[in-house]
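Retro notes - structure team

What went well: the batch runner handled both jobs without manual restarts.
What didn't: labels got mixed up in the shared folder, which is why I'm recording both outputs here explicitly, each with its sequence directly above its tokens.

Job 1
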Amino acid sequence: MRHRKAGRKLGRTTAHREMLLRNLLTSLFHYEKIVTTEAKAKELRKLAEKVITLAKREDLHARRQAAEVIEDEKVLKKLFESIGGRYKDRNGGYTRITKLDYRMGDGAPLAAIELVGSGAAPEPLAKPAKRRGRRQHKGPAAGQKPAEPLAAQAGEAERAARP
């Protein structure tokens, strides 16, 4: 039984999982919005909330605690100078997870995780183009003209070369 065992293992060893979450966290604070799988986004949210709470304190001890997780100095500086101040009056709920489509290769559910109030209004998702099945005919896409035969292209090149 898995009673009282919180957290997802994400199919990785402990060290691999910790480094994965550190790298995702660094990317989240650098770009303020990233796309990953739903499970990784939900695990990342827990860590991001804790680190942003540290950044709101703005003292040396909090900075050193955050530096244990975020090893990029530029991102750490951004976290404490701009992101921490942005959420001074907010008690939690610093991130938003938006479910997206499924990944083409393995069908994993994707999600976008972003910092709330990052300045840009959330863009409405455009309807994705209709996906063709693997075994269907792959003709020219809609709106594109079919490719010309090589013989026709060679004839045009000869005509253009003549004076």
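Job 2
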Amino acid sequence: MTPADPAFRDRVATAFAAQGFARTLGARLVSVEPGRCEIDCMFHDGLTQHHGMFHAGVLTTLADNACGFAAMSLLPPGGEVLSVEFKISFLRPGAGVAAVARGEVLKPGRTLTTCRADVHMRDASGRETLAATMLATMMAAAPEARGANPATGARDIPAAPGTRRIAAPP
């Protein structure tokens, strides 16, 4: 696949770095190629479910991000993506020292792009075992103008009509 933006790697890396949730998880952008993306996350106690393994939400987030950034790598300059649908199947428990999500574009489109991601559990020896697989649809989106919150530097996203914003704790 051929990227529409020669600077796609920098654009994807910048967008990944802007994700507060990915930082909270400790996720790391390992590689991005046209139509492909790999993200990993080291295990720690803050990512567990009640059996002490990776929580399904962590694995889902990694797969969703791998699909999204794989799709974003093929968009023209300034192009962003939003997830519009996905289905994930968990094949094995999330037991390992790291989770590795590899996303790839199956069918690129002007508006909708179909992707898949596999999430592998890596053990201490480096051996990987498939634990989950995702099929996802990503939508190309134009960047939205957002101001930065002066207190945090984060983007300020206005509240949806009919809702109110809840102030962040100091």
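One thing worth noting from job 2: The longest helix spans residues 56-72.
We'll revisit the folder naming next retro.
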